Amino acid sequence: MTQDEVLAEFRAAGALLEGHFILTSGRHSAVYLQKNLVFMDPPRTERLCRALAERIRAAYGPIDMVVSPAVGGIVPGYETARALGAKTVFVERESGQFQLRRGFAIPKGARVVMVEDIITTGLSSRECLASIADQPGEIVGAACLIDRSGGKAELGKPLVALATLDIPTFEADKLPPELASLPAVKPGSRALAGQA
């Protein structure tokens, strides 16, 4: 699947939005990728995640387990694991920190890839990877549907993405005038877990 085909899937789902958005990272952007409008369509999600699984296999070889951060990474993590023939688990926040819960564990010798939906700064991905670093499996890399950092997000592990975009983001006190003139909307999920 090409980058243009990936973006066409987001456009067809009405998931490529323009306006003034406060991202999960706290940074501001004129573009928001509302992946949940993609994920509400199982065939579309399956197409994207199957393509991501192909990139993962090409980059990292066989994978035994996919780990994703809750909430946004659960659906693509599950679908990508299904395409890989792998198990899937997710980490979730407890007292502000990601951790494996619900009896999840990563077995010794398991080849693990962390799968995300959208990466902007890489913060959630880094936190997810750090939360499983003490597990006995081998973290071989990370993957996401869209890397909106333009390849600049540093995760500490190799990253493969279906699409890499360079969409500018801004600190709240450094907004360009055209963005500052629009009302801000905060559509992310981090606030659901008690994170502002």
UniProtKB/TrEMBL annotation:
It catalyses: orotidine 5'-phosphate + diphosphate = orotate + 5-phospho-alpha-D-ribose 1-diphosphate. Its cofactor is Mg(2+). Pathway: Pyrimidine metabolism; UMP biosynthesis via de novo pathway; UMP from orotate: step 1/2. It is an enzyme of class 2 (transferase). Pfam families: Pribosyltran. Belongs to the purine/pyrimidine phosphoribosyltransferase family. PyrE subfamily. This is Orotate phosphoribosyltransferase. The lineage of its organism: Bacteria, Pseudomonadati, Pseudomonadota, Alphaproteobacteria, Hyphomicrobiales.
